[in-house]
Amino acid sequence: DTAVSQTPKYLVTQMGNDKSIKCEQNLGHDTMYWYKQDSKKFLKIMFSYNNKELIINETVPNRFSPKSPDKAHLNLHINSLELGDSAVYFCASSQVAGKTQYFGPGTRLLVL
Amino acid sequence: SQQGEEDPQALSIQEGENATMNCSYKTSINNLQWYRQNSGRGLVHLILIRSNEREKHSGRLRVTLDTSKKSSSLLITASRAADTASYFCATDALDSNYQLIWGAGTKLIIKP
Predict the structure, then answer these.
(1) Smallest Cβ distance to B48: which of A4, A100, A106?
(2) Closest Cα in chain A to B50
(3) SS3 state of residue A83
(4) What is the pLDDT of residue B97?
(5) More confident position, B53 or A58
(6) What's the Cα-to-Cα distance from A54 to each of A20, A67, B24, rounded to whole Å?
(7) Which chain B residues have a beta carbon less than 8 Å from that of A105?
(8) pLDDT classification of B2: cutoffs 50, 70, 90
(9) Do B88 and B22 contact (CB within 8 A), yes or no?
(10) Distance (Å, rounded) from C-alpha B45 to C-alpha B47?
């Protein structure tokens, strides 16, 4: 069974659209994260959730909003998509913050 | 946020040779972690070394940590084609609210 799963794997959409990416972990971890990896492979933390409480929120546009219906899920909603949002988005989880992180396979977002 | 730095940015060696990658960071840490990312995949945790440890082994991997120089190295011995990937270091800095700070990665190519 996949430990951290994301859907969809690929997402191609037009500028201005609203989209969501889903993430689920079956590891029983307390902390989940969203990362953005750009074309140069830099990993940027966007959000992390610990027991449904937001504990990190980097300088991310408010068009991006995380939603956690329960401890096992952390979804990412993006409003009014822009060309610069094109990247690979990774979900990850860890038992506790700061320790080993387990990554999903990534969602490749292309905004046209 | 601060980022660690890795060098080299890219490394190409013959199968069977040893590969060494370095990581430098800027602030005091709780631990340092190394991850591997195969092309088109999510990151996979390789090894975690705590700030009070100087060396750690896992199979063909050897990690060293020098907190006085704020640097770490990852050595892969007897490299194989399957080791071709990007390798990232990440630090759990003392003042980072448990946010992992990521390096830019080293792209390793093992030539058969």
Answers:
(1) A100
(2) A99
(3) helix
(4) 67
(5) B53
(6) 18, 10, 29
(7) 41-42
(8) very low
(9) no
(10) 6
